[in-house]
Amino acid sequence: MALFKFEDRRPRVSQGAFVAESALVIGDVQIGKDAYIGHGAILRADYGTIQVGEGTAIEEGVIVHARPNDRTIFGNHVTVGHGAMIHNAQIRDNAVIGMRATISDFSIVGEWTIIGEMGLVKSNQNVPDGVVAVGVPVKVVGKVDKEQKEFWSYGKRLYVEMAHRYLTPGAFMRID
Prior knowledge:
By secondary structure, the protein is mainly beta. About 10% of the residues lie in helices and about 35% in strands. The protein contains one helix and 20 strands. The strands form two sheets. Strands 1, 2, 4, 6, 8, 9, 11, 12, 14, 15, 17 and 18 form a twelve-stranded parallel beta sheet that branches. The protein has an eight-stranded mixed beta sheet with strand order 3-5-7-10-13-16-19-20. The two termini are about 20 Å apart.
């Protein structure tokens, strides 16, 4: 794992969580049980705090930061798509953040809310629970339905399984 202490701030990783060797986890980052932190992700909590909930997947290339003496918080079973950027925001349980989306300062993404690919949740924007929001900035275009919840529940289980598979001795190893 690529965990780095910064001054007196150090990461804490719970049992069953996977942090890729190429990810950078710096400072006061708390990673919950069964979480997945993908290759090339950067979680930098050198003067803020980052909390990653249980079963949450922070996929490859995601950038996460928090303002001084503030927090970026991911609830449980959140999915953050490849290349997204999250800065000093709250992402509630079961939310889905699309690939390359940006979630900006002091914004809140509600429980079971889906933010579309490349969407922008602007500073101080509150996206309510259980909706689909897309665009720049995002606008609500519908409600999350049963089929979407079933699809994303399946994907969330896959990433918990993937975290465990990566942690299995001999499963993931450099071969050159």
